[in-house]
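TA notes, week 10

Several of you asked for a full example with nothing omitted. So below is the full record: structure tokens for the whole chain, then the designed sequence directly under it. When grading your own attempts, check the secondary structure regions first.
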């Protein structure tokens, strides 16, 4: 019997560990070993940690990208909504980076949303992503 089968509350344990900066990297590395269903249970947490720059951003993003793409596309916009409502430049930038790795239409929707904000920094990153998407389509 493996460790995860013996630990039915492993997702809850990892959630608590994610809230402790000193334990976050180990928690994310452990999450990478979980079956897909358990990683999906951590999706909101992973997205929160992938939405701003810190030492575990790339690992959080990689864990998200390890999930089934169609599942991510079905859930990411709803999961990102509270992050975007409470966030600003950094969250939009990080989520646009992640969205760009997932899907052009998804990226375009978020970039247009950022373009329609009153923050000139958001407008600038939105323009950059829209230009990048246009370049990708021309290639």
């Amino acid at each position: 019997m493996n460790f995860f089968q013996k630990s039915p509350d492993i997702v809850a344990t990892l959630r608590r560990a994610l809230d402790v900066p000193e334990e976050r990297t180990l928690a994310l590395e452990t999450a990478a070993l979980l079956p897909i269903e358990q990683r999906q249970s951590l999706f909101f947490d992973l997205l929160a940690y992938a939405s701003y720059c810190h030492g575990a951003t790339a690992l959080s993003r990689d864990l998200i990208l390890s999930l089934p793409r169609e599942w991510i596309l079905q859930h990411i916009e709803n999961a990102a909504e509270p992050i975007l409502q409470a966030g600003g430049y950094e969250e939009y930038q990080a989520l646009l980076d992640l969205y760009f790795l997932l899907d052009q239409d998804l990226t375009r929707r978020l970039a247009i949303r950022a373009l329609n904000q009153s923050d000139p920094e958001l407008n600038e990153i939105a323009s950059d992503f829209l230009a990048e998407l246009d370049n990708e389509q021309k290639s």
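Residues 10 and 36 are 13 Å apart (CA to CA). Use that as a sanity check on your answer.
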